[in-house]
Amino acid sequence: MAVNRFFSVRSRVLYPIAVKTTAGTKWGYINNNGTVAIRPQYEYANPFQLIGYAVVELNRGQGLIDSSGAYVAQPVYDYIGSFSEGRVPVIKGNNYRLMNESGELVGEQSFSYMAELHDGRAVVSAPQEGGDSKYGYIDRQGAVAIPLQYEDAGDFSHGRALVKVKDHEFALILPSGVKLATYNYAFVGQPGDGYLPFRQTENGKTGYINELGTVVIPPRYAMALPFESGRAIINMSEGVDNQYGVIDRQGNTVIKPIYNDILQLNNERFAVGKARNTEQPYIGSIYALFDNAGKQLTDFIFTEIDPFKHGVASASDGKTTFFIDGSGKAAPDFPVFNGSGNLVLMDDGIIQVNIDQRTLYALRNGRIVWQPATTIPLRTPYRVKEEKYKPNRDYLVYYPIVEGMGDVAAEHRVNKKLRELSQVKPIDPEAQLDYSYTGDFNVAWFHKNLLVLELTGYRFPFGAAHGMPSQIYSHINVTNGQFYELKDLFKPGSDYVKTLSRLVGEQIKNDPQYDYVFPGSYTGIKPDQPFYVTEHALKLYFQPYDIAPYAAGFPTFSIPYSQIESLINKQGDFWRSFHG
């Protein structure tokens, strides 16, 4: 029975799609004709894996579905990885377990970390006596095959894996755990083509040894990656002014170490990047295509180049996105798309087009088989239309336009304010910005006459460790264009700030999920505290760093209306716009 099901699953190719609805963005799947095969219903949907399953997210939990949409594993996991050799690592309650093709957990032991299975072994780690975590390997049944005894461990490949036994001691082992060789160096990197990068001292230069431990290329590089197809990418610079190059197995220079970036692309090709701005190399690169002999095949014209697959590679010049062949020329008989991003040629010939943060699907002749709608119907005559604003290659905003309001002047005022809140503003098309910005929106909720729009943004200063997200909720009465504030929910003169501050403080004190809040950082809410409403509760949230670490995102607290009923102005326009 299982064999038949797997056959039917694998014979049906589906692709993920995102659709904006009145309840936010929902994910589903289409077939290669562009017909919806699994209706949009998930919070997120990943591509189908070779085994015939896809990871989907629902109610903040991840599960596995087959191509009929049936659950193989219910969406109760915090994380589900990628299948490899018929097994997949999953997380539930901060612990890793191993899952088989039937969605069943195998093995009795859980771990604090687990990688994918390779050569019948998966890297795992767990705290040992004394509190230090150690690494080892499990087999396909989840049983420990190599004891957790290493300070670090890598995946098996071609029957070998590199492990760190202790400081200044690395080893190459077999799946049985038997050591092939031991290396007494401060650092040893992952093997490639029989060579391993190494450093004799912690902050010294990097060179290469062979699997026996013999030095084959003396240490002279600031950074050196594993060999692949007889070539390795190296960097001579220890600062921000990169000096990337490529060497062969004898240490001879193939591509001079003078570049800001180099990417290996398969098919014996490299994307070689010059800094877009030599004074600020961290802003990024503009790329040319080189071959394995170091010959430059194109000018420096590409903003992006992906690895080759099926003989072609996706490339973009910042204005259009297309496929190139091995010579770097636009591949014949393939379409060109306006915008920047990447293209993925599927095994069945369908092209996944990821352009300007939107995904659509096309045939090789350029015919679009599916693309996301740009209008979200509310109720007749109201709707929200998506508009795109991209004045500069580093500035992209999708913003909402409300349509169907009877009062044309009110509609104009609403949309003018939404553009401002969405950061639609004059940007020099030719300027090199020192940051990138992306903005988007969702209809968070629509009920009766109240439209709640979530406006999100992400500003990333080039060279920074991370960017800063933004989140604004606009509450709009579609009948008159009124924007509501937090105070509008409550009776005039009521001390809603004091009551809400107390309720949020009690949640921080008593609910373990808020353990991440910085001690002493919460002193109450503001009169104009960021908020949004739902059917049953008021949601109050804080910006990153306000009361919690960046990783906590936007700490959000739910206040049921029943707890603040005496304060709510039930005769007010705000409450009556969505309630009663």
TrEMBL record:
Pfam families: DUF3298, WG_beta_rep
Domain of life: Bacteria
InterPro entries: DUF3298, PdaC/RsiV-like_sf, WG_beta_rep
Domain named DUF3298: residues: 487-562
PANTHER family: DUF3298 DOMAIN-CONTAINING PROTEIN, GLR2918 PROTEIN
Identification of the protein by name: DUF3298 domain-containing protein
